[in-house]
Every structure is written in structure tokens, then in C-alpha cells.
């Protein structure tokens, strides 16, 4: 069985495309087998909605009269990076508000902009001959900005470690509240619905792949940072934090149902980003990948009370176990909590499916593949002599 | 006048031996609904949902305090902003009262406010800030 992007798009245009979510396709493959399922289904949609710290947005304010070359800029008192052209900035999701506002940061600015709220912008400069203005303060909104696009260097992690805590005190981590003496375990992946779990070797996902991003349409723009292909695999899926995606998409057109600011206690600000990737069923192998179930996907369990990057994997558990509410670890039952939302992931896969069934979203062939291998280097403290 | 209140009772190892519930029923005519009960070597805690007339409730309260049992009204409660809740489940494993559970069909996180003892753990654990503390 072979299918092309052109054939799929023709069917999308004529309203004949058969689209299923990565959850729906599991039972189809179980009952009909991979061959029949691949012959029947054109596209499988995936989804994920979880904390993705490595996110932010480029904004262009337009020029004031007299103009200013912004040296420093704040949005609702959250600093944004403006070491680029005069009125461009990048607002990072995890940047915190200056002053006491520990519960507000860049992610909230992005959520507020998408919600259509007015955001207070303040900027300073030394002034130049061509940009004489030294200070400006104004409210801006998504409508007043020229361009506003999200550019996230690392999203949609393919699998992620499970957090536990062996120490005697409660830990507040980016994996949430970890109760002492293995009191709970937290995990963060949509498992069988997650984009990179369904195309584990990125055979169809590449640069330029059109995706669902935050309720609007976006694109895969590069491999994500810390792109890693070195973990061993189980059932064709790597066990551990592996491939990642860098994504881009217009803030105008996004929806706060699928972008949500997070304030993680004693850790800081993060942002929940909704991403859905359509997987074209070009052949049977790709369908086999999409049929992956939570019981086939395993995650390593890591002890967060060990404060070193050499934390060892203590066990491996499946997403089916994790999602059941408790896992067996060291002969005891440990309650689990997810940090990413399975219901939202499902809603995203369904929304993307609807777009395609209604002809609003066509597939794109990647302009270049993602790297076939990648390795994460640690940061070792070095001298200039050691490096030159 | 009949009122409806929630109380947290904290026992020492000694006072944990007293038949408090039986006394409440027999002596004061109060029907307590036990929401949560925990006893160990350090004592115990009991969460009661009580409906009764105001006068007997006050008398019962005085009696309980005389026995050296700490009785505190749960005058706060938490509520969930349904829109802000993303149904992640971060709250599920940290709630001591098991007020959250995952619906096995939809995987949505169901909140049962009746079970809540207002410990505020979920307010900290919920990063989208959907859980809010309110006073009755
Ligand atoms: S932690 Fe908050 S957002 Fe997550 S399920 Fe619980 S209430 Fe909802
Ligand atoms: S405050 Fe939250 S964590 Fe504490 S008992 Fe109530 S629902 Fe559970």
C-alpha cells in the first residue's frame, strides 16, 4: 500500500479524506489489522497539551513618533528581550514579573494577548540621532501589534521521565509536588496520543510540516533543542526524553483554550501549549507506528531528590500503568498524577481531524527531514585553552 | 434552627479512646456524618459533617473541647474554576482527602467538593491556578 501527499490533499479538498485520531485508530488496527487499517485511513491526528517551558513569542510594536530604539522593554512589568531591531522583542514564557508578582510572567502576557486583553508596554533607550526618544509607555494588544508569532525552541517532547522523591521532605519541582518517601509519581506525556510517539523516527514529521499550534495553524520550523536519539527503544518507541520540535505559528488565530499560563509552585512560570501533528498514512509501516498503545510505551522513573544530572533510572513503567492512577514501585502502590492533559490532547486531535474533514487544513510534505540522529552534550566548565 | 457545618477533630493518643461519636448521638442528638477518619500512634483526626440545631451543636462543641480534643470548624472551602482547569491531574495524587479522581472513560479530573477538608494542598499544586480558596 502506498499513498502520496497529493492524493491525501485531493481527498481533503473533495471532502472524502478518512481521518482518525491516534486513539481511535488503535481499535481499528486491533480489529482489522495494519494492512486494512492503512488502506482505509488517510491521516491520523495526534495531540498533546502540557507544560513547555521553552516557548515564547516575537512581537513587533511599530514605530512611535518620535521613534525609539528600545533598549529595554517590559510587558505588564515582565522584561522582554529586545537585543534585536528597534521595536522587535521576544517575550519568553518563563520570564517573571519584576517586583512581587511571582505568579505572573511571560506566559501570562502571551495568554492575555491571545485573550485580546490590553497589555501595558514600557520601554527605555539611550536615544540616538535617528531614534531620539528615550522612554515610552503605552497599552498594546494583539490588534495593535504588527507581527506576533510564537516561536518555541523546544516543544512536544517525545516521551519524558516520571518524577519520584525518595527523600524525607516534600519537593516542589517542575514535575510538580513530589511527596516524600515515594508518596507519589508524576509524569508528563499524552502517551499514545502524543505526536512523536506516533511517528517515532520522524518519517513524516519534518521542517515545514503544518501543525495545530495553540488553536491555530503553525509549522515545524526546526528540530527542537536537546534533540536526542540515543535512548534505547521498547516496541519501537524510545524510553526517555528523546526527540523534540521547534515550532512557529501566528499568535493571531490562537485560542486560550489551547494556550494556558502556568505558575508552578516554588519553581516558576511555564506555559501549557497545545500541539497537534497530522500523520499521513503513506504506507503500512507508518500506520503500525500510529497504532501504538499506552501499554506499549514506557517511561523511566527518576528520583528528583538526587540533585545531580547523573540521576539513574530506578524503574520503567508503562503509560497504561501511569494512567490507571497508581504504579507498582519497589513493592508498593504509588499514586500517580499527570502534568499534561490527556482530555485536552484528545480535544486537539479531534479538532485537527475536524479541520481536515471540513477541508480547512491540508497536509504539507516536509521541505527537509529532521536529523536522523542527535545527542545531548552536558555543560562542563571549561577554560578557553581547553576549547581552542 | 438547624445548621450544617464541617468540623475537623484532632485527637491525642489518650483522647482517641473516647467514644465521641456515640456521645454526640446519644447525649446531644446530633447525627454526624464521618467524612474522614485516621488513627495512629500519634492520635487521630476526624472530619465530621454535622447537621443539627444550633444550640445542641454549641453544647456538643463545649463537651468535646472539655475532653481535650481540638475541634476546629472548616470554615474555608476550595472551589474550581472549571474553565481554567485543564484536567491534567496534578491534584489527584496530593489530595489527602481523595477529593479528586479521574473519570475512567474521559480521563477528565472529577472534583468532589464534599470530600474536601480545605487543607489547601491543591491550591499550591494546581499550576494553571484553577483551584481557589474561599471563605464560607
Ligand atoms: S491540578 Fe488544577 S488544572 Fe490540573 S486537574 Fe487539578 S484542578 Fe484541574
Ligand atoms: S484543599 Fe484541595 S487538596 Fe486539600 S482536601 Fe480539599 S481538595 Fe483535597
Question: Could you describe the 3D structure shown?
Answer:
The complex is a heterodimer of chains A (388) and B (136). By secondary structure, chain A is of the alpha+beta class. Chain A has two domains: 5-52 and 152-369, no CATH class; 62-145, no CATH class. Chain A has helices at 5-14, 24-32, 34-40, 106-114, 195-198, 284-290, 319-323, 342-357, 384-387; strands at 19-21, 43-45, 48-51, 56-60, 72-75, 78-80, 88-92, 119-124, 135-140, 148-155, 162-164, 171-173, 176-178, 184-187, 206-207, 210-213, 216-223, 233-234, 237-238, 245-250, 259-264, 268-276, 278-280, 298-303, 313-318, 326-329, 332-338, 368-369. In chain A, strand 16 and strand 17 (216-223) form a beta hairpin. In chain A, helix 2 (24-32) crosses helix 3 (34-40) and helix 3 crosses helix 6. The mean pLDDT of chain A is 95. Chain B has two domains: 2-73, ACT domain (Alpha-Beta Plaits, 2-Layer Sandwich); 78-133, Alpha-Beta Plaits (2-Layer Sandwich), CATH 3.30.70.20. Chain B is built from three helices and eight strands; from the N terminus they run βαββαββββαβ. In chain B, the strands form three sheets. In chain B, strands 2-3-1-4 form a four-stranded antiparallel β-sheet. The two termini of chain B are 18 Å apart. The interface between A and B is medium-sized, with 33 and 21 residues. The structure holds iron/sulfur cluster (SF4) (2 copies). The site of one iron/sulfur cluster has 14 residues of chain B, from loops.
Quick take:
Chain A has 388 residues and is α+β, with helices and mostly antiparallel strands.
CATH fold naming of the largest domain in chain B: Alpha-Beta Plaits
Beta-strand fraction estimate of chain B: 35-45%
Strand percent estimate of chain A = 25-35%
Report the largest inter-chain contact: A-B, 33 and 21 residues
Spatial separation of the terminal alpha carbons of chain A: 53 Å
Number of strands of chain A: 28
Q: Which residues of chain B sit in consecutive blocks of at least 5 with pLDDT less than 50?
A: none
Amino acid at each position: 500500500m502506498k499513498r502520496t501527499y497529493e492524493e491525501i490533499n485531493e481527498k481533503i479538498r473533495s471532502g472524502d479524506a478518512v481521518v482518525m485520531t491516534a486513539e481511535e485508530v488503535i481499535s481499528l488496527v486491533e480489529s482489522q489489522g495494519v494492512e486494512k487499517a492503512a488502506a482505509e485511513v488517510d491521516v491520523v491526528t495526534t495531540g498533546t497539551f502540557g507544560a513547555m517551558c521553552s516557548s515564547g513569542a516575537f512581537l513587533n510594536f511599530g514605530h512611535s513618533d518620535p521613534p525609539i530604539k528600545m533598549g529595554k522593554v517590559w510587558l505588564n512589568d515582565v522584561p522582554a528581550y529586545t537585543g534585536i531591531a528597534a521595536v522587535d522583542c521576544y517575550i519568553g514564557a518563563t520570564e517573571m514579573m519584576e517586583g512581587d508578582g511571582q505568579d505572573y510572567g511571560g506566559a501570562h502576557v502571551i495568554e492575555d494577548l491571545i485573550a485580546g486583553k490590553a497589555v501595558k508596554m514600557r520601554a527605555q533607550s539611550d536615544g540616538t540621532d535617528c531614534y531620539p526618544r528615550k522612554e515610552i509607555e503605552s497599552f498594546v494588544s494583539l490588534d495593535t501589534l504588527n507581527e506576533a508569532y510564537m516561536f518555541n525552541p523546544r516543544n512536544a517532547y517525545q516521551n519524558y521521565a516520571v518524577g519520584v522523591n525518595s527523600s524525607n521532605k516534600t519537593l516542589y519541582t517542575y514535575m510538580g509536588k513530589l511527596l516524600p518517601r515515594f508518596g507519589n509519581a508524576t509524569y508528563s506525556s499524552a502517551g499514545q496520543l502524543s505526536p512523536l510517539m506516533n511517528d517515532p523516527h520522524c518519517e513524516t514529521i519534518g521542517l515545514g510540516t503544518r501543525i495545530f499550534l495553540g488553536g491555530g495553524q503553525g509549522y515545524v520550523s526546526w528540530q527542537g533543542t536537546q534533540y536526542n536519539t540515543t535512548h534505547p527503544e521498547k516496541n519501537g518507541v524510545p524510553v526517555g526524553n528523546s526527540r523534540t520540535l521547534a515550532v512557529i505559528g501566528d499568535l493571531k488565530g490562537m485560542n486560550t483554550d489551547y494556550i494556558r499560563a502556568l505558575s508552578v509552585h516554588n519553581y516558576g512560570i511555564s506555559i501549557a501549549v497545545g500541539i497537534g501533528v497530522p500523520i499521513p498514512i503513506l504506507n503500512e509501516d507508518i500506520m503500525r507506528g500510529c497504532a501504538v498503545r499506552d501499554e506499549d510505551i514506557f517511561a523511566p522513573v527518576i528520583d528528583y531528590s538526587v540533585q545531580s544530572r547523573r540521576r539513574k533510572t530506578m524503574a520503567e513503567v508503562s503509560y497504561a500503568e501511569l494512567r490507571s492512577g497508581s504504579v507498582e514501585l519497589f513493592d508498593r502502590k504509588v499514586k500517580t498524577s499527570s502534568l499534561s492533559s490527556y482530555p485536552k490532547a484528545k480535544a486537539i486531535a479531534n479538532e485537527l481531524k475536524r479541520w481536515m474533514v471540513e477541508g480547512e487544513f491540508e497536509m504539507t510534505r516536509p521541505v527537509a527531514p529532521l536529523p536522523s540522529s542527535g545527542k545531548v552534550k552536558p555543560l562542563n566548565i571549561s577554560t578557553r585553552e581547553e576549547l581552542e | 434552627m438547624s445548621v450544617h457545618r464541617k468540623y475537623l477533630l484532632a485527637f491525642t493518643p489518650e483522647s482517641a479512646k473516647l467514644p465521641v461519636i456515640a456521645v454526640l448521638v446519644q447525649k446531644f442528638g446530633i447525627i454526624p456524618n464521618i467524612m474522614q477518619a485516621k488513627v495512629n500512634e500519634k492520635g487521630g483526626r476526624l472530619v465530621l459533617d454535622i447537621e443539627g440545631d444550633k444550640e445542641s451543636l454549641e453544647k456538643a462543641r463545649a463537651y468535646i473541647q472539655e475532653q481535650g480534643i481540638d475541634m476546629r470548624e472548616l470554615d474555608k472551602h476550595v472551589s474550581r474554576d472549571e474553565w481554567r482547569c485543564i484536567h491534567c491531574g496534578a491534584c489527584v495524587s496530593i489530595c489527602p482527602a481523595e477529593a479528586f479522581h479521574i473519570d475512567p472513560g474521559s480521563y477528565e479530573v472529577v472534583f468532589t467538593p464534599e470530600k474536601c477538608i480545605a487543607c489547601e494542598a491543591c491550591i499550591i499544586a494546581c499550576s494553571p491556578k484553577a483551584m481557589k480558596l474561599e471563605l464560607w
